[in-house]
Amino acid sequence: MKNSLLRRTSNYRFALLSMVLLLLVGCNRNPHFITDKQYRNQVHADFVARQDLAQGRAEALFAGMDTLCLRDREALEFLYAYMPYSDLADYDGAFFLKQVQYAFAARDTFSWGEEIPEDIFRHFVLVYRVNNENLDTARMLMFRELKDRVKDLSMEQAALEVNHWCHEYVAYRAADIRTSAPLATMRTSLGRCGEESTFTVTAMRAVGIPARQCYTPRWAHCDDNHAWVEVWVDGEWKFLGACEPDPELNMGWFSVPSTRCMMVHSKAFGRYHGDEEVVEQTPLYSDLNLLSHYAPTRRVTVTVLDNMEKPVADAAVKFKLYNYSEYYTLASVNTDAEGKASLTTGLGDLLIWATDGKEYGYSKLDVRQDSLITICLTRTSENEYVEELDIVPPVAGEAKVTPTEEAVAKNAQRIAHEDSIRNAYTATFPTEDNYRQLLPKEWYWRGADFSDSQVWEIVQKSEGNYAEIAKFFDVWGGQGRAFEHIYDYLKSYSDKDLRDITAEVLEAHMTGFDWADRQKGTCYGADYTYDVYKQGILPARISNEMVRAWRQPLHEAFANIQGDKGYQQLRDWTLQHIAVDDTGNYYNCPISPVGVYQLRHADAHSRDIFFVAACRSLNIPAYLDNATNIIYVWNQDVNDWQKVSFDTQLNNSTTQQLNNSTTSLTLTYRGKNPEVPVYWPHFALAKYENGDFVTFDFEGDDRLAKFPATLQLEPGYYCLFTGNRYPEGDVLSRMEFFTLKEGENRSLEIILRPLVEKNAQSNAVINPDLEVFGTTLADYAGAAGMLYINLGDYREPSKHLVKELQEQRKALQQWGGMIYLLAPDNVNVLAWNLPNADILSTKNLDPFGALLLKTINPSQSKPDYPFVALVNNRGEILFHSQGYKIGLAEQILKASKK
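Below the sequence we write its predicted structure tokens.
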């Protein structure tokens, strides 16, 4: 079924005819889509303004609107009036009209369509975008696939059924920050929570069920974040885990963790006037605070004073939460004329930060104890000091819904069946044994540096997209063309790129230019090394954007730019012609380089991507350092990389100083636990800009792979954040504020405050003579101990733990203890290659786990998964944990050293 679905070979003629009739009837029955005349006039005025802004793409976007029926035209005007720049730049009117038509078809098809209020339908069914995903035609496909499956159900039953359908196609896997389009997620059958929730919201809206993505931007009790789905059912918003079906709504593995949240966000497209608390409202969107749906809350009010203790109006108040070493801004609210700003948040600790853009102040707020706080703006970028804070998250609450055992068992059977459907599909992906049969027979394109193992590496990463990779090989190699560096070219794409890129885009970045000259390393007569070419010209990917074909169009657009200083001309052109507005692209989905060129409006990040692409299209090596967001171009005069800035306040002399600067920071580390600190989990670095610190993203960066590590940085005011978290979620935080002067080479030590045992008490003990795998616990545990892990039904929390255990494989080997692991039968545990692991099925009786749970918490009949316990050979339980926690593997290893 799945292969035929993705090839779209089914005959939908009757369904399409029925839909056309529905659309015609709907247009005649409902002359106005927006019945409130005042709101309708506002939308139209906003649309006219947006039309003017997008005049560079007027033909592609607006042609034919006058021929539409009134209902469809008003709906399309609503979408155009408020869509982000990325959508105005990279899609066309035919795409958006289809979205409108299928939204109305869903409303007219299903019984619940008539129950949905106009504003709920407008903002949470009609809207095609969920978050920052790439867009596709998933709504149409999902409507056709789900129509007969749910049309005779109640609205609530339909919502549950749609989630089961989603689970047949998609399960959880961690991935990079770019959000795949729903059909791309379907094709590979795996996605992170943001992709699962995008997929599920799209499916709900496809059948006319209002839905929105909800997310806690950062957890309070552990690192990372999470996204899920809310559906509007029978007049009420209820939540569910995306692609993770439960017997009822208002259920999910995150139900208890969400009671510890300090913020739950959702975004409403357009001018929204709902009942939810609005954190930020703009003419284009509203940021909603949904925390009260999940956790106990309190409204806090901040008063900001200057150094004369007078109220400061229009100061930015930032409500920050510790997570991944930094203090992340959950919400930013400007003060009123009395210097006050308010927010509803959870019952835990926050760092309240206030600034007027120059001076700043901050203080920790314990929301459990206080709802009022005053911040004085007394600090400046000249202050060097160390600040240590102890941060405590909210306590956990109770789950909203407890289903019957019968309902749980029935749901588990369905989940197992859905897993088998999805696993049968993924079994069709290429294997090392058969991948050659799926590729072209004549491999003219293979150079000496493109071995069979490298071909398999690329094909394996493509997963369900392997047909596009094979097509590219066929087209490129079938024409007898060779390219010496094809492996480096394909390797420059991310794993996710290979899972959703098309053969046409791969081809577009390899044709239309004199590749022979490129291989010689010629740049307008100047020679540069292959390493420069590999970093600054070869890749089609620049940052976190969806890769599209841009080389040929930009090459033609800037054909008049010549000479070895072409990048300066491109910079001047960009400053003159591209208007930068970060609010206009509010979903933060990067605009394609060609889209930026055509729309002439962009956010700063998309502008930077465009500039690098334009340079590369003219054979000028350039790249964007995604850790620091600095652009570099190759300057043949100095035979080195040079920084490029769009800061118009910098003159040529200042820019030259930046490029000649030798300012650096060397980070050292002398600690033992962890052996090597990791960026984000243990430390982070930020630079002061406009009254706040902007954190760099050095995750996985080779520059910080070992210590001491030296970073070339710009002069400025910085903060080095570190944090050490207790298993319960409390954090010992440290901030070191310092200045880097021009030409200074400064050294700082990464210091993690040591955890101290709180409320010391004796460990719970089980009988060391208890038998485990035919031997006593004492003998089984040995000198190192034994780690018990029950993964339960193997949902996202358990998958996070497995990923961490794999990353800590070397440390687990050094620890040397035994691992007693329970996992579902359909999970390939052996592929994890965990050391010293004995594996049981979760279907088996687990008397050992039952004894552990009874010893840890006698009143608890069933654990939350993953359930983990570390036991020594004396039967002492040194560490135990239940449920979702990021960093759990590291906590286990810390406990093993006690």
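Confidence is low (pLDDT under 50) at residues 1-23, 512-525.
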